[in-house]
Design brief:
Blueprint (H helix, E strand, L loop, with lengths): L1 H32 L15 E2 L9 E4 L5 E4 L6 H13 L3 H9 L4 H4 L3 H10 L4 H6 L7 E3 L6 E3 L35 H4 L11 H12 L10 E7 L7 H7 L3 E6 L2 H5 L6 E4 L16 E7 L8 H11 E11 L2 E2 L6 H4 L3 H13 L5 E8 L18 E7 L5
Parallel strand pairs: 6-7, 6-9, 7-8, 9-10
Antiparallel strand pairs: 1-11, 2-3, 4-5, 10-13, 12-13
Length: 398
């Protein structure tokens, strides 16, 4: 009887500890949203966080819009949640069992070396918001900036992160709960995007790379295209002369802030819509567009599979989707599945969104568009990295 009573009491203590921790994470996330990660109304620059960690030291780095990196004694990147989780759970004698449950029997190296292990990693994230944010994986092939200590994928690693064939029977999202898409700030996005932010969220070099990639008349945009800029803002990174040169018939913008969309001079029409609700339907007819763009926003979508299925619906057969992302983000609005992974895992995750959305996508590929300097395979990235995941809408019915 005493043993049973003690067991019940112990379980109650553990449950209470978990509740306390979740409340702590929520409070801590709210505190951060008032400081490092949200643009103030009087500031001309938006402060965003790099989703990375210094591998050479225990210091954590924050980058502002000017590209400046500052060391913080209190970690402010996504790994901060792991540190706080470790300290808290160790004090409650719960951390070792939690880590074993999340990571299984494989080590970090095994997690990052194959598509199969990446699927197992993604499945492990569907436990709770706290453990999703706590678990961080590191790519197996990385180069480290000697000045900042930031690790980036080696050249070619992003491209090989996408499997040549997909195992539909091993869909990682079938076992993922909604907690994998939880965020530190769970308040409606309409609050967060109330004030316009007329700033770029990556450095000027990366902005130019995005603009060139979209505007040079290559794979992304072609003559006569009708374009949807998903999660749009005051800029679509489509050069005005390219719009005329390519004869783009339509550029529709869907975003969160009317003032930003009004200021976007390349848009022919726009609509304000929050996709992070239970109604993720796009307000467009079937087969309306030749290409859909999503720039620096995929990490914020809480219903990415539903949104990507909608993207497939509004694309014409043979149409293209282009998803661009970097390693900067507003961490309190990014989903746990994203903050718990590195850039290579991000590429695989985005590709998985497309494949498992039932949106009818094929030829899913990833490309590292980062600017690099020097010679050889391990050339360091200059400024912010830039990655693209692309796919074609199949002509077959879904």
């Amino acid at each position: 009887m005493n043993d049973a009573t003690n067991a019940i009491a112990s379980n109650n203590i553990h449950i209470t500890s978990m509740i306390f921790f979740l409340l702590f994470v929520t409070t801590y996330g709210a505190h951060l949203s008032e400081g490092a990660f949200v643009a103030s109304k009087t500031s001309s620059k938006s402060s965003t966080c790099r989703c990375t960690q210094s591998v050479s030291t225990n210091n954590f780095l924050i980058a502002n819009e000017a590209g400046d990196l500052k060391k913080r004694t209190m970690p402010l990147t996504h790994n901060s949640c792991r540190d706080h989780a470790s300290n808290f759970f160790k004090s409650q004698q719960l951390m070792s069992s939690l880590e074993n449950f999340v990571s299984g029997e494989e080590g970090d190296g095994d997690m990052a070396t194959s598509s199969a292990s990446r699927r197992r990693f993604m499945k492990s994230l569907g436990i709770t918001a706290a453990t999703s944010l706590a678990q961080v994986q590191t790519s197996s092939a990385t180069i480290t900036d000697p000045k900042t200590g930031i690790a980036y994928p080696s050249e070619g690693e992003i491209e090989t992160s996408i499997p040549s064939s997909w195992d539909d029977a091993d869909n990682p999202f079938e076992s993922l709960g909604r907690d994998a898409f939880a965020r530190l700030d769970s308040s409606p996005d309409t609050f967060f995007y109330t004030d316009p932010r007329f700033v770029e969220h990556v450095d000027s070099n990366t902005v130019q790379s995005m603009t060139s990639y979209l505007s040079d008349g290559g794979w992304a945009l072609r003559p006569g295209d009708e374009v949807l800029d998903l999660c749009s803002s005051w800029t679509s990174h489509i050069d005005g002369t390219a719009k005329e040169k390519l004869g783009l018939k339509r550029i529709s913008g869907l975003g969160m802030n009317a003032e930003e969309l009004k200021a976007n001079t390349v848009l022919t029409d726009w609509v304000v819509k929050d996709l992070n609700t239970n109604e993720a339907t796009l307000p467009y007819e079937d087969s309306s567009f030749d290409v859909v763009l999503c720039q620096l926003s995929i990490d914020y979508l809480t219903h990415p599979l539903e949104v990507m299925k909608e993207v497939g619906r509004v694309l014409r057969p043979g149409g293209r989707v282009v998803i661009l992302f970097s390693n900067r983000l507003f961490i309190q609005k990014a989903v746990g599945l994203w903050t718990g992974a590195d850039d290579v895992d991000h590429a695989y995750t985005v590709a998985s969104y497309l494949h498992y959305s039932n949106g009818g996508f094929e030829s899913i590929k990833a490309q590292d568009l980062s600017t690099r300097k020097g010679k050889g395979k391990d050339r360091p990235v200059v400024g912010d990295p830039l990655y693209a995941v692309t796919a074609i809408r199949s002509s077959k019915s879904t």
